[in-house]
Predict the structure of Iron ABC transporter permease.
Amino acid sequence: MTTLTAPASAPLAYRRSAVRRGVLWALAAAVPLAFLTVFFAYPVAAIVGRGLVADGALDLSGFADVLSRPRTWRIVGTTLAQATVGTVLAVVLGVPGAYVLHRCTFPGRTAVRAFVVVPFVLPTVVVGVAFRSVLAPHGPLGFLDWDGTFAGVVAALVFFNYAVVVRTVGAFWATLDPRAEQAARTLGAPPWRAFVSVTLPALTPAIASAAAIVFLFCSTAFGVVLVLGGTGYGTVETEIWVQTTQFLDLRAAAVLSVLQLLVVGAALAVAGRARTSRERALELRVTQMRLALRGPERRAGDVAAVAVTGLVVVGLLALPLLTVLVRSFRTPSGWGLGNYAALGTTGGPNALSVTVWEAAATSLRVALDATVLAVVVGGLVALVVSRRPRSRPARRAVRLLDGVFMLPLGVSAVTVGFGFLVALDRPFGIDLDLRGSLVLVPIAQAVVAVPLVVRTVLPVLRAIDTRLHEAAAVLGASPGAVLRLVDWPVAARSLGLAVGLAFAVSLGEFGATSFLARPDRPTLPVVIFRLIGRPGAENLGMALAASVLLAALTAAVMLVAERLRAGSAGDLA
């Protein structure tokens, strides 16, 4: 056997290379840290300061004032109730879907799995419009009388977060060894007992992780709640917006932001612990089972899972989207393309300051800028935290950075946008007012999108064998050459999906944008919300047509991203 021997000067060259790598990794971490500090930590800290500090001293009177209001506790109770019920329903309905779509094989499974993900990437304003259409008195489900009710808001939250449970639990379920459950069945346990005693405990880490993330998304939902719930079922998220934009009570909004940060921090801690348990669990990839709904191989559990999944996909996911599409062709004078033709106008009196097409162009430009920022920052973050250093302090530092860079995932976009308004009039004491700058909107959207880029690219980079990096360094490859020859070919395979997710999220972002968008340069979600708030069938028809346009743009972006990922998967195979 031939042994590859390093040159005699390899130890010295390796030490020099290690120093260079250390400097480069420090710089790679410094760029996203600086971005996070200026455009996330500083604005959020400014909000916390508004709630805790007055005249340079600690002052908790703002908390006492806000917490003494019955309105505050009603809103906090509504937030927790909607998040809890939405999380429970998403988990109960999502676990059967995870089994059918990830544990079993059947014709058309890929298409159904792709469709299930579509609601998660849809703009929240579009989801709100979709459910208003389907729950309206003349809508398909108008007989339920859920329009503007607690149940309608919860249904929309489940619609939005169903894919989180299916993907998170399903991906883990597909790796479980079925022999333990088969052994229980052989020993006489009925199917339900084998599932409850064997499979369900093994799925607990994945279910807990999914539930924590869904609770996080439900408790910080903005566009869906604002469109469907209004003031009657407002949450802490919408109340921050109301206190800022309608009551001009910045102190109350800051106190509510601090309360929300506490709830979000608890949800992130639970999600982090659950994710750690899931990563440490034994994973053994097995052959998936063929879905049998008839014949001697028919299983009662499969029939029930398929029935629940079918009802959810058709009744909860597809029906609202189809309703918006159909109603967008209905005009006051009959069926036609009048609503789409009106997109070139500013709507009724005092409805809009720009046309919908101009707002769409603004959204595309802003989303493009935000995507570039998110991919650059998120790519650097993923590259840094994917390292597996030998020393324990270095490993702890990497884990700490991973947690720090995930913080924007748990802080609401409304808080980020509000923080920009509070903090960036004189950032760090500099005599410079950035609040009217056009770059703030793409920066705020990039802050929201960075964690998604990291979570898309990071698993791929972590799959690279570290011995490849070490071997390349010993043989004299520069850090840049190692990145170009080892990391980049692998990371590029996930880059298409990361770009697609960032672009789709930026395109539909509404929470931060509602604070920062200038009246003469609104984005498409802001325009849709304005149209919904204006009376008249013409404005509603334009809102429906604009929602279809925004949903189509988002779906097209995700379709391209999925195709790029499919091509990358083929290359990898």
User: Anything to note?
Assistant: The chain has a mean pLDDT of 78. The two ends are 29 Å apart (CA to CA). The domain at 24-53+337-573 is CATH 1.10.3720.10 (MetI-like fold).
